[in-house]
Design a protein that fits this description.
The complex is a heterodimer of chains A (about 110) and B (about 110). With about 110 residues, chain A is an all-beta fold. Helices cover about 0% and strands about 55% of the residues of chain A. In chain A, about 35% of the residues are buried. The termini of chain B are far apart. Chain B has about 110 residues and is mainly beta. In chain B, the strands form two sheets. In chain B, strands 2, 4, 5, 6, 9, 10 and 11 form a seven-stranded mixed beta sheet that branches. Chain B is built from no helices and eleven strands. In chain B, β7 and β8 form a beta hairpin. Classes of the chains: A mainly beta (about 110), B mainly beta (about 110). At the A-B interface, β5, β6, β10 and β11 of A face β5, β9 and β10 of B.
Chain lengths: ~110, ~110
């Protein structure tokens, strides 16, 4: 079974600053995908960024980037130039190539303040 | 491109009743997954349908069942509702294949009294 752990229940950052959200996971699989999803109060789960485990290069999407450390089973999300609209719950998720389910962590609530 | 749509938005039921939640997948997507998100928790995988067949199931009892139709829309049925079934139910659609990202709807908020 795969488990995903997000150790920061809540975080706060000032507008225009940089923040890093942590995620660790446990798996015996070698081929898998990792994701960060954002869930604003509107409830819709929005894909922020994804990483294929076989790729060594860290994924980047505009202001969002990840630090993927496969040996340490760590997958952190860095948000640069934080904006008020980034305020949301952020979920780290794992999906093995051998399975179908997304396994989510409990989430980190991020508040961006003016 | 039409996104994933779910209905109804909110629903209130009492213990022992049955409920049906509906999901229309994003245009072109043939795979639908359902998740239960309890308050303050991450979503938990219920099951997945691919081309009208259930091809994966999480740790949920048989009173959680589903259907997928030829147009790839889907239903989640829950029988004998319990208080712990109160949650946000999320539907996600994708193209078949493990490397395809899942796109989520806004969810149905189910409250059991």
């Amino acid at each position: 079974a795969q488990t995903v752990t997000q150790s920061q229940p809540e975080m706060s950052v000032q507008e225009a600053e940089t923040v890093t959200l942590s995620c660790t996971y446990d798996t015996s699989e070698n081929n898998y995908y990792l994701f960060w999803y954002k869930q604003p109060p509107s409830r819709q789960m929005i894909l922020v960024i994804r990483q294929e485990a076989y790729k060594q290069q860290n994924a980047t999407e505009n202001r969002f980037s990840v630090n993927f450390q496969k040996a340490a089973k760590s997958f952190s999300l860095k948000i640069s130039d934080s904006q008020l609209g980034d305020t949301a719950m952020y979920f780290c998720a794992f999906r093995a190539n051998s399975g179908y389910a997304l396994n989510f962590g409990k989430g980190t609530s991020l508040l961006v303040t003016p | 491109e039409t996104g994933v749509t779910q209905s109804p938005t909110h629903l209130i039921k009492t213990r022992g009743q049955q409920v049906t939640l509906r999901c229309s997948s994003q245009s072109g997507h043939n795979t639908v997954s359902w998740y239960q998100q309890a308050l303050g928790q991450g979503p938990q995988f219920i099951f997945q349908y691919y081309r009208e067949e259930e091809n994966g199931r999480g740790n949920f009892p048989p009173r959680f069942s589903g259907l997928q139709f030829p147009n790839y829309s889907s239903e989640l049925n829950v029988n004998a509702l319990e208080l712990d079934d109160s949650a946000l139910y999320l539907c996600a659609s994708s193209l078949g294949g493990h490397n395809q990202p899942q796109h989520f709807g806004d969810g149905t908020r189910l409250s059991i009294l």
